[in-house]
Amino acid sequence: MSSSCNSQSCDSSTCGSPDAKMAQQDMAINSSLGKIKHKILVMSGKGGVGKSTVSVNLALALAAKGYKVGLMDVDLHGPDICRMLNLTQKLKDEDVSQQKLLPPMVYNDNLKVISLEYMMENRDDAIIWRGPLKIQAIRQFIADLDWGDLDYLVIDSPPGTGDEPLTVAQTIKDSHALVVTTPQEVSLADVRKSLNFCKHVKMDVVGMVENMSGFVCPHCNETVEIFKSGGGEKTAADYGVRFLGRIPLDPKVVDAGDEGKPYLSSAEDTPATRAFDEVVANVVDALKNKVSLNMAGAACDCASGTCNC
User: In the beta sheet, which residues pair with residue 247?
Assistant: First the structure.
């Protein structure tokens, strides 16, 4: 939501121009982003690999550790975040009509959430938008919302390398990509496109997660590699990015997501939750120390001023 123009900063011929409005929004975006320490774009070249599951559980796990966290759903055509968190709040008309920052949904004291479903009258309506509308919506998610001070902003994106991840890369220039894959080659082929996308737009990759990596049978405790195993780790090594961990399949993840009670970040002690704890710890460690690998595989320390990412 744009603020009113300052008469001392522009004249009547330019004050209402698209360029002036864009400049005002850029200022609002920069102000908002300046209050957020770490921005994580959860992405993948392939759909159905568990990006939303990783995004939701990562945000919850970070919030449970005491960090202030924002969760932003930029999968505009297929938003799932609200349902996975059982959030039914709707943006109130009085909030939209007033000239002020809009309140995001509050999940708990440490987690704020925004999704297009928050602004829709009927959440089952189809979003039939071309690129410009999607770009503007994502920019407004940053500029017009009262995120406040955050330690982490987790951004759940749709599959591919189109408008949504590109808009995030161009708008949030210090964001880090967290790439999710499953072990089989058909997924890894698309994920390699994601890694090349990050290289092209100069987005640092915090690491790669191999999801659905083996299934532990609840009856015999034997592990079955339904989608193979190890492909994500090998691809991470080939591209010189950090491997954050592998998460096994667990039917409870599906049930919990449908019920709005995410499972991987829960207190249960299972192979899946232990594996996800390791992923979260690796993400925190990588961003805390500002140490990552660039796409050529050369180590760099951004904090020391010798960053070559």
Answer: 211
The CA distance from 207 to 236, in Å, is: 8
Q: How far apart are CA 53 and CA 263, in angstroms?
A: 9
Among 45, 48, 42, smallest CA distance to 62 is for 42
| Residue given tokens 């982003």 in the structure block | 33
Among the residue ranges 40-44, 144-148, 293-297, the one predicted with the least confidence is 293-297
| CB-based contacts of 62, cutoff 8 Å, min separation 6 | 69, 151, 152, 154, 280, 284
Calculate mean pLDDT across residues 60-75.
Answer: 97
Query: Are the beta carbons of 125 and 94 closer than 8 angstroms?
Result: no
Strands of the chain (E only): list them: 36-43, 69-73, 105-108, 111-114, 150-156, 176-181, 204-216, 223-224, 243-249, 291-293, 299-301
The helix (H) or strand (E) run that includes residue 47 is: none
Angle between helices 185-201 and 163-171 (to 10 degrees): 30
Sign of CA dihedral 106, 46, 54, 199: negative
Average pLDDT over residues 80-92: 91
3-state secondary structure 15-27: CCCHHHHHHHHHH
Report, as an integer, the average pLDDT of 27-44. 96
The band of 207, judged by pLDDT with boundaries at 50, 70 and 90, is very high
**C-beta of residue 157 within 8 angstroms of C-beta of residue 78:** no
Map tokens 């405790």 to a residue: 221
Q: 240-272, pLDDT tens digit by residue? A: 999 999 999 998 898 898 899 999 999 899 889
Pick the range with the lowest mean pLDDT from 9-23, 79-93, 105-119: 9-23
DSSP track, 136-162: HHHHHHHHSB---SEEEEEEE--SSSS
